[in-house]
User: Fold Glycosyltransferase family 4 protein from Teichococcus vastitatis.
Amino acid sequence: MRIAIDMQGALTAGSRPRGIGRYTSQLVHAMVQQRGDDDLRLVLNANHAAAAEAVAAEYAPLLPRDAISRYRVPVGSDLHLPPAAPERRLGDAIVRRHIAGLQPDVMMATSLFEPAAADFSPLDLSRYPARLSACILYDLVPLLFRDLYLNNPVAELSYRATAASLAQTHLLLAISESARRDAIRLLDLDPGRVVNISGAADGRFGPLQLSSDQAQPLLARLGLERPFVMYVSGADPRKNLSGAVAAFAALPDPLRQSHQLLLVTNLGAGEAEFRQKAEALGLPPQQLVLTSGLDDEALVRLMNLATVFLFPSLYEGFGLPVLEAMQCGTPVLAANTSSIPEIIDRGDLLFDAGDNSGAAAGLARLLGDAALRREISDWGIRRAASFTWQRSARTALDAMRERLAEPPPFHAIPCELLDLDNARTEFGGILAGAPALDERIGAVVDDLLFSVPGFQEGASRRLLIDVSMTQGTDLWSGIQRVVRQVTAAFYEQPLRDGVIPLAVRLEPLAAFSVPDFVAATLDRPPAGLPYQVEIRDGDDLFMLDSSWEHYASFAPVFTEVERQGGRVITCIYDLIPELHPEVCTENMPEVHGRWLANAVRHSHGLICISRAVADELIAYIRNNALSHRPGLRIGWFHCGSNIQRAGTTLPAQPATVQAFAGPQPVFVCVGTLEPRKAQDLALDAFEQLWAQGIDASLCLIGKLGWKVEALAARIRSHPEHGKRLHWLNDARDADVVFAYNHAEAVLCTSLAEGFGLPIAEAARMERPVICSDIPVFREVGGAGAVYFPVGDAAALAGTLRRWLDGERPADPTKVSRNSWADAALRIREVLYEGDWYRRLD
Assistant:
């Protein structure tokens, strides 16, 4: 599992010094320690240069050199950029491409709500190029305290947009059960998408034995002259600093006079006003100490020196300071709100945040009872030990792994994102509506090239995959299946370092990327409109589709590919129109022959779907003296045999189920009804079996083709039709899978084929195959299939009879059963590793 972790929570000025920064650093550090075989990649926002360098230096000894990367986004003009702001859209586009270059299984964000101009906030994390998007959920405080935090329309728009992105994230890692419940309720989420991973305190927080010489300089520097009550918090209203003051001020005079209140918080310009309010509440200046900017060493020392740690916060996502104090052995007293009772599971140490007198009573009880404080100190240390970063990291990693095991959710298509033309189109659209950014276009391009080094000139090349015919249809059979499955396999696994696959629709003078076609093939939502692809240095063009009638019109594109130093590679499916014209439609031999001659003439390489076709092609070129380039390469690969893509679970149609409902064994033929498939021969053989009283069924699966009108009429009028003879002419993949799973055996009766996909598909599903004895079937079926003489119905009937009598020598494990990923890998070996079959000089 490769996880790309955006470390922004540990970088920004708004988060790095706060709990978010501390939480991010500690959790990720524990994840690195717990990663095992997982591949963790840390992603840094280079706009925060000093912090990024510090984080990189921290993790450099713990991770491989290439595990830390940086992106840079355009800096906005103000806080809280709205979603439509061009800087935010450009930054989102840049970071998506940076993540695409990492090809992660999981994209994990450590902090989405970053409002500063130099920060990065994704517009929709679920669209990032990973199988799973994940995010740490700290809290949804602004939605709970809208009047306090969302009273600025710009801030509210920005926050709600980011909250919408959070709601679309596939997995939320909540830092408490309280935060988890809030997310489920406020964002209307499926509870299974939100996991409580809890949190822990830094190991530096612990009990200390401090001498007077060690303690006194720090106390004197801060003005602490008496025992003190301590509160560490931010300055925002929900932290309830005034509640801490009011509770302390309400102490009985002797206790108040003998103690001081230490507030570790940064009030900035508001400190003077706060002191005036404190005095109005009855707290003299000498009893209130305010400080900020303490390092961890000073903070740990102060927690150890404090008599009581008071925590009156109105709401906390986790409440880390409470746990830090407990870990130091400091007696704690806190408000019973939000997540705090998850840490302090003792009612006698909790108070109502709205009841200052109740808080004062609890504080007085602790300050006046040393024995109780010692008991609470010991209890707090034991309780805090149950919160560990190791446990949180394991919970987070396990949650990601479990979600990845489910059907893969949508993710953007990395291949498109790593294409420079795609970036040019998206960036051009954004900048066209932002004329004020014209003078910054150069800097934006620099940010893109910094963040995505693969866009640098000459850093990558592309394999343009022709899908011109298939992309305009809904067909999934024959060549269309090969085009879709090979294209999908290219997109789902790297071709090789520095090569990007890109599906294209060709026109006579141009090529256009078709991201929506790829998204549909991968069973994902639409990915974007087509855009023109500029042929550039080193682009190869793989003519994978069935462009028989249009191939010659693409000659200008072929010329441009060659001019740019690329190659034209054409896929050859079969030579049936040339070698067996009698089984084709009337004009196909002429059309196909013209296409073949053009393909041989224009291509730098020809790659066939079997070695048998490659042998036929070599002989045909030589026998017919076809013109070709000197050194023309001939290669081959085997098609994949996995039918349904991962995550597809459509049921079979009722007619399919009915065909296998009887008690007799069912033999299946898969393929379009056409003369070369010889389904009539299969029916002849079964009529012989039925005449001999043998009870078996024949199921034909395939749409109506050409020159088989008589066969179609014969099937429909046959007395066994719907009984022991079935024809499924509108079968989907789910029907084919059902048929294979329930078949006695699969029959392949063809007179000629380019590959023989049903043989491999059946074998992959552990079904035996009986097939005609043609070279390509021998190549695919090997020693695992049963063969009968080509065109001999009586021989097939005899083979079936012996089969039903128990003579079954087929062994599916010995049949070629490549996956489509294997097919793409084989094509890669041919194209980029030079594993060609023959060279024609």
